[in-house]
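During the no-cost extension, the postdoctoral fellow (Dr. R.K.) reprocessed legacy sequence entries with the updated structure-token encoder. One reprocessed record is reproduced below for audit purposes.
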Amino acid sequence: MRRFLPALIVVIGLLAIAIDFLPNLKVPFGAPPGQSSRALETKLGLDLQGGLRVEYQAQCVADKCPTTADMSVVRDIIERRVNSTGVSEPQVVTQGTDRVVVELPGATDVESVRALVGQTGRLEFVPIPPGVQVTQNQQIDVGPGSQFTPLFGGDQVDTATLGSDPQTGQRAVDFRLKGDAASKFATYTSQNIGQQFAIVLDGTIISAPTIQSAIPGGQGQITGGPGGFSSQEANNLITVLRYGSLPFPVKELSNEQISATLGDAFLKQSVVASIIGIALVLLFMVLHYRLPGVIASGALVYYALVVLAIFRLVPVTLTLAGIAGFVLSVGMAVDANILIFERTKEELRVGKSLPLAIEAGFNRAWNSILDSNVSSLITAFILYFFGSSVIRGFALVLIIGVLVSMFTAITVTRSVLRVVVARQGARKAWLYGVSDQEFVARPSARTRLRGEARGRV
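Re-encoded structure tokens follow.
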């Protein structure tokens, strides 16, 4: 395994550099529904980038008006819908008894986000009576007293994914029904072959296919008619199917573009302060620990590149709290190296050879490093699962930073030191913060052990 570590470190480093600096890179995972890939980019939060603010009001239905519990459901559904569009860390809060405010960092396609958030999403599967013909986009009255009575609602949809029409190859939406609805659908389709069956969203027919054969198992497909679905239409429909219907219709009261709460100047100041702080840490490591400090500084740069690449892959939305979490994780990465180098100096002072002292320093420091990082991870996970969106962003950055710091401090620094100490010019005590006089002032550990062994014999 030791032989493959240098190659693994180089490969990870090259991948991180490519992800950080190559433009127009896309990945096939984490894409919003209806899209096959996602662009790699560094996402900034509302406080650093600004975005869109939209206020909605939940409307009463018949004699029923929304309660506090209903508004909580509305807020959760809207937040899940907005997250599915690729807008990270939206701020969705309720105000009063009937209003929801949505703040979207860096929103670009404003109209599509508005349409998705405000859409009630009342999806119904409606049998069409014999002799009645309906078409796509036709408005119909569904419910009691109407000739169109739904067989079941959209809440019976188990999953929804992007698919294609096997006959035309055009974009479609595949869905799977839950147990009771699946059996109802199978029974109805087996008894009504040749009849139309409409899929209706908010009173508008999305698709009205003719039943060609029985459909057992609850597997179905929604096609977009002769022209198929556009990418955005499929994306919106999949999102509504996945995340359910709003219990009350919502009306948009206002919308506005909001500027960054902290602004570009504050962001630049934060970045400059972070760079100064990290530079002082690197200077301390080089001056105090000398050669190991230089190697640790290189590992810290490597660490920063890898963490930034992970931020872009996840993706992590960077707020001011997230930047603070990153700087904190840098300090923790250096702390691990300090423990290792101090242990190594102790081993050198008792007379061990340089390679043995370095290995012993890493091995003896490992337990302390592990305990410290595990306690930090436990705290960060608690913040992530129970905190608000801003706190969760800080916690996620800290979790990633701690995990990567353990890799760089133990694996990267250790591998580089093994290569360096193999060179004769690097085998000098002063390069490791230990004077020659201090090094020779005490007998070597192996000499003492040999003497004790001869005494016992």
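The CA atoms of residues 347 and 357 lie 5 Å apart. The mean pLDDT is 79. The remaining legacy entries will be reprocessed before the final report is submitted.
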